[in-house]
Amino acid sequence: MAQRALAVTLILALFFLAGCGGAGSSTPPDAPPPPPPPPPVITPPQPAFAVLSGTPVDAATEVPRGSGLAATLSVAPDPVSIHASSVSLLGPQGNPVPGTLSVSGNEIRLQPAVALPGGTQYTLNFATGIKDVAGRPLSAAVSRSFTTAAQTWGATSRQLAEMPHFTGGVVPTVAVDKAGDVTVVWQHNVSGIATVFAARMDHRTGNWSAPVSIHSAANMFGGMGPVSMVADGSGNVYVLWCDTADPRQSVWMARYVAAASAWLAPVAIKGLPGGTSFNAVLPVVDAKGILTVVLRSYVWDGLYGMRYDVASGAWSVPREILPPSADNFVHNLDLAVDGVGNLFLGWVQRGYIGNASNGLNVVRYSADTGNWSAPHVLDDNLTSEPYALVADAQGGATIAWTHGSGIMDTPAIHAARFDTRAMAWGLPVVLSITADGLGANSPAVAIDASGIATVVWAQQRGIYGVRSSRASAAWTVAQRLGTAIPGNARFAITADIAGNVALLYEQDGAILAMPYSATQAQWMTPTAIASPDGGQNVFANAPIAVRDASSNVTVVWLAQISVGGIPRYIVASNSLR
Length: 577
Hints:
Elements: H1 2-21, E1 51-55, E2 60-63, E3 69-73, E4 87-90, E5 99-104, E6 107-112, E7 121-126, E8 142-148, E9 158-163, E10 173-176, E11 182-190, E12 193-201, E13 212-216, E14 228-231, E15 237-242, E16 251-257, E17 262-263, E18 267-268, E19 278-285, E20 291-297, E21 303-309, E22 314-315, E23 319-322, E24 329-337, E25 343-350, E26 359-365, E27 376-379, E28 388-391, E29 397-403, E30 412-419, E31 424-425, E32 429-430, E33 440-447, E34 453-459, E35 462-467, E36 479-482, E37 492-495, E38 501-507, E39 510-517, E40 522-523, E41 527-528, E42 536-540, E43 544-547, E44 553-563, E45 566-576
Parallel strand pairs: 2-8
Antiparallel strand pairs: 1-3, 3-6, 4-7, 5-6, 7-8, 9-45, 10-11, 11-12, 12-13, 14-15, 15-16, 16-17, 16-18, 19-20, 20-21, 21-22, 21-23, 24-25, 25-26, 26-27, 28-29, 29-30, 30-31, 30-32, 33-34, 34-35, 35-36, 37-38, 38-39, 39-40, 39-41, 42-44, 43-44, 44-45
């Protein structure tokens, strides 16, 4: 009975299972698996934003002075972040050297505005202010140093002209334009007639032209007073003098026009005060090319200023700077222009008849107002020695002179600086050493691009010098630079944009050049530069020197040399290039 019940149960179970499937039904296939996930995107790491290499390489030496500078970065920099605050070229005194920045791909380029002074160490800095196009700053600031190839003087001096006879005391005048072309003028007698000659040096080749006559006096009884000259930024040259053959001591100007490469015929300056004659004229040209001359009247000494319009060829009405007076005894005029067109004029003046003391007076012309200031007396007890007045690019000026004209006085070098913050002259400072019975004389001044002034003078059978602070009126202690005994003439001194200084002076018939190295912060051994080609020195007059924008120095002087035992009187020159 139990077996029969089990069988019935199994049959019913099978019947139930078959009914559930329905007619023709089957089990569905498995669903396809989902697609595999994509592989992860692996972004390669961005290279660090850094300076990879540069030209010149770090610590390079003998780098050509006209070389461009470059740095290659790991990725392209954002050009907006490339400016003077993020990329800078500094000289050895920390002063910035101007130049043009550009970006090309991953490269930053800096082209200095002018050829760099030679034998000088510079530092090229890349700050973290530089960013790439993604805004990332430079990973680390980078500094690279290099030293430029040295400049050298010519092996021999060059003869510019030969004199028919020695013209002692008639020192040549020299000027340099913005491009570096140099003009020299001098005078000597031709058949008894005072004649002004000129020669020009091409800055591209260093070659001098043959001398040309630009003016001759009207007769044998007159001549030219001291000849003065300036050049403007366009290469035009202005030569001025007073004609002593004219009873009125008329003032003349000859112009070299750069566009025509020719000298124009001299013309007398018109519009001068009626009934007044003149015996001195000082010209200066500012950065805008405006020519200003200061004239000293004759008999009753007075001072006047006039401005020249190059386009129209017209002179302004004379402006009185110092009223003429029988009590005035004005001499040793000096005129300088700063980087923004302000003028500084100095002169030595005795206050009245019978007063033997000399006063050093200074006035300033303001480019903003067009007015001259009232005279300011810096010292009322100075010698008749020439002083030195130099203006700087920042609007200041430095003046140095020899104090002490009395019998019991020991001459000493004093200096004062014009303070652009106070718009006034600072108090005079004694620069020379005091324990010297021989006294001091012949100061000369140069100011570099950063505003540091260098003053040198003759004292105690040697040459002494000091340097100023850039930020204040402080001076270093006087240092003995050499044991040579300078002649009675003034030194020639000039400074470049990096702070190097060239000091030129006459010693024992030769012209010597003593450099100050801003890199080494010291004066170097002097070099004789006046050895004439094919002869030997007999006598050399005071040198005069100019430095062009590319820091090439040209020196000119009068000399007597001996060639085969025959004396020759020449205008000579040498250049540091």
